[in-house]
Design goal:
Elements: H1 9-22, H2 29-40, H3 44-58, H4 66-105
Helix pairs in contact: 1-2, 1-3, 2-3
């Protein structure tokens, strides 16, 4: 289950941009994040995650990008569906094999 975002993409991008622009005006990145988070009405941890995600997506930080995450999620879903279909086919095959053996014995 996914939860609807409380903040629009534009607000998130603007907040991340503000962190990068105002970083030199504060003593640390965390101080910058706390200051901006208060202004836009989110928690500092939420903004920190947005900044981290932005840096990963732009290649400034190591990690899995959003597109890679989406692709992995789709592949896992497909794998799960294929395993389920395979189990159904195995069960059906065993059922028909047993039915064929029963028919030969009569």
């Amino acid at each position: 289950m996914t939860r609807a975002n409380r903040y629009s993409t534009e607000v998130q991008e603007r907040a991340v941009r503000m962190v990068h622009e105002q970083e030199s005006a504060h003593s640390s990145r965390w101080a910058t994040i706390v200051s901006i988070a208060e202004k836009i009405g989110c928690t500092p941890e939420t903004l920190r995650k947005w900044v981290q995600r932005s840096e990963i997506d732009s290649g400034q930080r190591a990690g899995m990008t959003a597109s890679e995450r989406d692709e992995l999620k789709a592949l896992k879903r497909e794998n799960r569906e294929l395993k389920r279909a395979n189990e159904i086919l195995k069960t059906a095959s065993a059922f028909f094999a047993q039915a064929e053996l029963d028919r030969r014995l009569k």
